[in-house]
Records
---
Amino acid sequence: MAEYRARPYLLATDTLVAAHHHQLPFVDLFIVKLFAAPCKFEDPLAVVDPSGTSSVVCLSLQDKPPATSRGFRTIAPNIRTELTKIASTTTEWLSKVSQVKSIATALKLLSEQAALLSSLNSWLMSLDLVQVQTEYHGPEPLSLSFMRLFHLVLKIIILGTLDASPDTRAELQTENNRFQNLANNVEERVRAYRTRKITATSGITD
């Protein structure tokens, strides 16, 4: 969306450039809504029994998690709710940017952009803190990795809107690279997850 300039943008603090493609669909809005939709993905959980033996189980949202995982699963929904709220505010902000017609309004929206980015940074720090406090063992849950992807999606969309300065372009490239690396990692883990599920199902039916 940033490349095709589907929305007005600031070339400098005193230059507002109109959107290049008024009829281009806002794909970024669709992506935000896609990530914000409820997901019932199951996370494999590492559970340690009294004998010290570690095993992996898969729990759906309807299952009651073991005590060792309850801390993370009690707090994580609140973390996702906060991210969804930021996403909702982001879509409202994007709509405002689409209608901007004056430099004064654009500069005001730049302040709102900074506030959104600050909210995302605070959210990420909270997520990392939750992960440390719950002392979750093993790879982080896939649902948490998806939230990290959602966070990066929002950050990239916000960075790529309105502000077209060279510094912002450079930061956007850095975030794009970070997103690609995380997406590749999640893709590999999802593939492994599906393989385990298929193997487990085959074992039951045999």
---
Amino acid sequence: MRKADIQAGPVHGKRHFRKLFRNFAAASLALSWLLGHPAGAQVGATFDLLEVKGVVYRSVKVVAVSSSTVTIRHSDGIAQLALRSLGPELQQRFGYSQAAEDLRELLLSTERKQQAAAQASLPRTVASPRPAARSDSAVGRALARFGTQAKLGEVDLRPRFRELELGTKSQGQRPSCAVFAVVSALEFQNAAAVGHAEKLSEEYLIWATRRTLGIPAGEARKVRLGPGEDDERDAGFVLDEVLSAVRAYGIPLQSELPNRFGLAMENIPDPDSEVIASARSRREVSTYMVPGVNNDVKIANIMHALNEGVPVVIGLGWPHWRSLRAPTLSEQAPMEGYSHAVTLVGYYSKTGQAADVHFIFKNSWGVRWGTGGYGFAEIGYLRRNLFEAVVIEVRSTGG
């Protein structure tokens, strides 16, 4: 696809997008006042018992908090709970505001409707191809098998990533692993949709995620660490926050908004309205959280996706770098209050047994880390430390 093909529509369409952006930016000021920030200081908090909607969790430790969820480790594994499902006292403790969430959803819903109406009004010289039915796509076939036993085979998408020249990137000093993991899967799925590779902008998605969260420009979102570490660090993002930003703002080419690693995330300026319009009009992106009553079911569903050639983005507990003498996650203990996001691109079992499965993941720490930027995770490690997983589907809008 030529660069000219991905530009926004005629001038009147760009003006409409500028108006939408100004209105949303003004409303975001009210949202940021209501929303505040997740209670990152609650990471590491413990509860003997925690009851949520009739489900009792025992020996609970909080491992991550976002604006809408809290991730806990408990006696039977790991769970991610919606803050809206908690009682008022816990909601206050974790910094949750129902009014802020309702306002954010209303703003995004209204903006998406206005965006769709504006896009529909733009003249098209060529009719957009009708997207294939979901059941006919690789993602659709994987979704149809969710909840069933996975066929054990061997999958390695690394050669395809190399063929597309979608190499391992480095996130630098920014705590943006979730953004890089999502973009890695997006680039791969986008290439499958349009027939060739395009490099996409992590810089833009960092900005968009902060925007949807209502974090004011120039303000970092800090989380306090435990003893023996630096007092504070930037909290970064969790997967559902990044995915919400993709759905709301789309993503442009990297050439339209290149990465500037010397710039702190809170200092990324607003992109030009033309870049935002281009990002939103280029692709139709659908995201699907991988379900499962426990991590065994989630892992089977992940294997269904990989068997269809679909990479899977995961968030998981992560060990201290000193315990990673080889790029394999096995028996290491994850650091308290720390998580990481990577893109699963395959799996294998040397014995042919499910208990010996190793997953292959693409990291975002550059090609010098691991095996050319890739690492491995034993199935047992994922059973104990997997937080969440998501598959992404991309369809061309004809633009």
---
Amino acid sequence: MHRFLFALLITAIAIPIGKGQRYRLPKTVKPTRYVLTMEPNLSTNAPTFSGNLIIQFQALSPTTSITLHANDIKIATSSVSIVSSTGANVRIWRTTSNPEVQTFTINLRQPLVSLQHYNLTFSKFTGGLGTGEGFFFDRIFTNEGESLIAATHFQSKGARKAFPCFDEPSFKATFIISLIRQPKFFSLSNQELDHMEELSDGRLKDVYKETPPMSTYIVAFSVLNFKSTPVYERHQIYATSEVINDVFVPLQLSVLMLKSLEDYTGIAYGLNKLDHLAVPNSFIIDNAMENWGLILYRERNLKYNPSAVRDIKRVVTFMAHEFSHQWFGNLVTPEFWDYIWISESFATYFQYFTASQIQPTWRLMDQFNIDIIHQGFLEEEEKGAHPLTYEVQDDQRFPPFYVMYEKGASIIRMMVHFLSHSIFQKAVHRQFQCVTPQDLYRTFQEEINGSVQKVFLGGMNLGDIMQSWETNKGYPIVTATRNYNTGFVTLKQHSPFENGALWSIPINYVYSFQPNFQDTTASFWFTKEYDIIYENVTTGGWLLINKQQTGRYRVNYDLENWQRIIAVLQSDNFQSIHVLNRAQLLNDAFYFAYQKIIPVSIPLTMSEYLAREKDYIPFAAFCNSLAYYLYTYNGNTDKDETKFFLNHRFKDQITPPGPNDYTQEYKIFRVRSVFKSVSVFVKYCLRNVLGFIIIIMVLGRSIYPPPQYLHQGSSTFFSARAKNRFHIVRRATMLHVTLPPHQ
């Protein structure tokens, strides 16, 4: 599953106990295998489906009722039967449906025998093919005619709309799936096709091999008449005739990504095939869905247009995210949706890490700081902070996506650095049975304890450290105040989101006299509200905390240290500070300025050094931070100082890398990050001359996007009307801005 449009409701499962409490399926039985047959009818204007099902289960207690999920499907009591493994029929008293919690309960006349196995049969159930979550249908018209598709998207509670099931992540079972279809269609499912049967009326029945144990939300099947690529190793892509010719590069990338993840995790991919299905953009709720062996994508996220630079990074990272889920989510499955961050945070981290292994020159792990860390800070500041583990109530949504994705992935990256890459990778090799955060920490701790490589955790275990990062809202702010007589550094931590919250913070730091940014493990652990750095201190030069911004926290300094940092940035030696820390300093300084913690002159004066900067990562931090500052403080008195600064001191100094510097990774970055920032300027600043000046400065005298980005219609800044405004501002400000011909 991928982010942005993810807004699925989590429902409950049993009889209400009280207001505000949530409902879960009782753990009185355990499903072990589903034998499922489905037949969609695509020949009508209101497509339907029918099916039959055998659920093999084990009784875990002598219960007289079985409760599972069913939603918007019709099940007759007469179609339900239960037989024990000894062949004895289990007498059913009655069945009841509870639409409020989407359950179907079977009451029995005698209790089940604990630990005995049973077959629960639904001889027939029916339902309608809808849109979005569940079993859905679409009709697409192309130049080659009509394409039809019925497919599934089950996360988080869609499986119950297709067939009766135990629709919680912890109820894993194997699946044998059969699909009945007309000859003009073909079918797909999680596993390989085992065999095909011809039915008496000309229909065909495709029977698929049994899957490994898996949760219902990653079950997938489809009946369709799309086009397909040839099989490339284990991979094949399915799409409409209008898209199929644009998916061959992703097909090649898929082989590299799967191998990269197998190599890193040390665990082979669990199936013999991996299909990719590109569906119309309005067809599914999410941008992609990680079904085991059959990944669904919105067409735009699998369609590769080599002339559109933005497609490159989007396709690669979307694919890497879903591939990561084949391990983190499908193998390692959260026990319940409270812990969905285990799946999504790891997948988000590995979408960047895996893609960076495939395309190392793109510097995606550097872009991670801009896309994930900085954006995650902004989202929590703007939209509200939440803990990682998020108790999902009945009619509530998942935690906001920026908690599962940006916040969680940033914390995973922090773990990678304070544990070290090698320890983290070895722990990943071991952790594939974990289902709760405590399981995760315990398995990682076992690797730490057994390793000859020592890891400094300040006398704590990993669970103690991660408790604060998992359960606290937001992130900490560390304030460092230097004593320029003794060299001691006083540290204070506080939360801008909840009073009294404390974190176990991995602190590492560097001085100007020994600028070693490579060792990103913790120098010490900051667990109290106040602490003092006594060792390896100096009164001279600058101090910088949080090397490569590996920890998920902001850092503020006393004004003297800020001035010393600015001095080195404005010198020829500015590259002695790591590029990720240059980006961090800009992002943090603007944040503290618009929080009125430091003067706005600090980030503005610091930004003057960008006249020398040739790396795009600090430019992204500057653009995003300044855009948010101007938007947030529109009309604030500090904005007058900003306007004066930009007009009189800064406008001729900022010269981002020119068109000759458009390497592939630079193009990707500029389009996705800088022009994203420009869109913020456009939205909030274009009603005044200052907004125009900022855009001109940021883009540079001869900087403009490649022509393929100029056909975005009225939504783009580079429209005909905007172009005319640009010329007006150019004349008014005496700036020489070159624009390409309008297209």
---
Amino acid sequence: GLGAPERHEGVRLDIEGLLAAFKEKNSVRFEAFSKVFADLKMSAIFAGRQTTAELLEFEEHLLQLCASYMMSVKSEDAAEFLEKFDPN
């Protein structure tokens, strides 16, 4: 049968949605990222935490999740992507 969902599974899905929407912009500019972040209402990601301890646990998980995405990018892929935006 189906197991119980991971405690913070929704956060992973939100981050994946943010990344997918930003990639669609085909930009490396903060302005584009900021617009996607606002459009998806990502600032609400911290809402609903009942205690400071719960908020800290959530933030720790969020940082670990974001770090895992940063570490998973191959340097060749990142360099190739950034070359598209090199003004020279």
